[in-house]
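re the bet — no i am not wrong, look at it urself. input seq straight from the record:
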Amino acid sequence: MRVIWICLLVMGCDANHPRDESAPPHIAFPPEDGVRKSEEPPPPKPEPTGSWTLTGTVVVNEPCGALFVTLDDQSQRLGDSRIYLFEVPDGTYRLSAFADCNHNGVPDLGDLRYHNATDGEPYRSYVLKGRGVISLPLEL
């Protein structure tokens, strides 16, 4: 990239006068997208957060339709293997599963749904920090 110094005569800028250090950093000209761009380097990218793999098999005693596993807003329709796999960063997640007995693609009345044996909720909650692999079988 070529940098062109623009000096205004009103400022008295010429080869014999050094640049005022209190002035803003030099600008690349002409800008490609109409926005002025500083020559200063961009801020460093943040370090990546943890990386988790959540996997498991859904066990269904009486299959009645397609199997789905959801992790918050992500959903997977399972094939014959009944194995699910999610790759996620650090965070708090709710994992659930259901068999779509009425074939409408959403968990509702008439479907077989996972229920947490501890509190009866239709999901398991996990707080993940760091890195790792968790194998979580879900029984409907």
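see?? The two ends are 61 Å apart (CA to CA). told u. also Confidence is low (pLDDT under 50) at residues 1-14. so pay up
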